Each structure stands twice: as C-alpha cells, then as structure tokens.
Amino acid sequence: MSQKDQVTSQEQALSKPDTPDPEVAPQAQRRRFTVEYKLRIVEEADRCIEPGQIGALLRREGLYASHLSNWRKMRDRWRLEALRAQKRGRKPQDPTEVELAKLRRENERLRSQLEQAEIIIDVQKKLSQLLGLTPPVGAENETGSCQ
User: Fold this and answer.
1) How many other C-beta atoms are found inside a 10 Å radius of the C-beta of residue 74?
2) Which residue among 4, 19, 95, 127 is least packed, with the fewest CB closer than 10 Å?
3) What's 64-82 look like in SS3?
4) pTM over 0.70, yes/no
5) Residue 140 carries which DSSP code?
C-alpha cells in the first residue's frame, strides 16, 4: 500500500463520525406493483418445483408470502382485471340513492315545520278566544258572517 493510499484511508476514517446520523428518515411510501410485475412473479413462483425456491424468489424480490397468495387469488378470480391498480377510498354512490336520501331529509324537515306551524296556529286561536277578539266557534250575527 502506498503512502497516498494510507493518507486517503486515514482521512476517510477520520471523516466518518462514530455517532449515528441524527437526521430523521422520511416516512416510508406504500409500494405499488404493476400488473405485469405481479403476473411475472406469480408465473415465476408457479414454475418453482424445488423446496425453498419460492422463499428465495420472495427474498430476492423483497416480497411477503401474503403478496403472492393474494396475487394468485386475484389471478384465479378475475385474471388481469383484478390485478390492475384499484382506486382506494369510498366507492361512488348511485345518483338515485343520493337523490332519494336528499328528498327524505327535505320531507322530514317540511313535516317538522308543518307541526310547528300547526302548534302556533292552535295557540293563536286559543289566545284570540281568551282575549275575546273572535266569537266562539259556531256563533254568527244576523248577517250570517262571523265578526
């Protein structure tokens, strides 16, 4: 080893601190696999005949056995359609169901307003009779109209 190589190795040793880097690692991202990749791995796993070959395949690709079993189920049920990337989140609602729910809420609101209006009208009638502003029900004057 030359003197120049010794100097560079000493510099590298001195530049590397013994303490770990305090920088926080970024949050891991969810892995996404393409349809072609899933299909290739499932086919490769199906070709494995010796014990331990599937485990070696999974270790080499950084996959779990659950990935392989899920992909096999999807392939068996739906072939390529199930292997395609699927949207996550809530499923879109049927427009008729949305309209029906909206009409039901509106109907309930109107029923509540009607009940409230009937109560107010009933109270106004009773107050009017108590104050003598209107004659009792069924009383008419000589002209045949109510006062």
Assistant:
1) 18
2) 19
3) CHHHHHHHHHHHHHHCHHH
4) no
5) -
For residue 21, pLDDT over 80 is answered with: no
How far, CA to CA in Å, does 67 sit from each of 46, 61, 79? Answer: 14, 11, 16
Give burial (CB, 10 Å; 0-12/13-18/19+) of 58. Answer: middle
Distant-in-sequence, close-in-space partners of 68: CB < 8 Å, separation ≥ 6? 41, 42, 45, 54, 58
CB 59 within 8 A of CB 41: no
Q: Which pLDDT value is given to residue 147?
A: 47
| pLDDT of the residue at 15 | 56
Q: How far apart are CA 67 and CA 57, in angstroms?
A: 12
DSSP secondary structure letters along 22-44? -PPPPPPPPP---HHHHHHHHHH
Mean per-residue pLDDT, 131-141: 67
User: Dihedral of CA 48/50/51/56: which sign?
Assistant: negative
H-helix or E-strand spanning residue 128: helix 95-131
Tokens at 26, concatenated? 């970024």
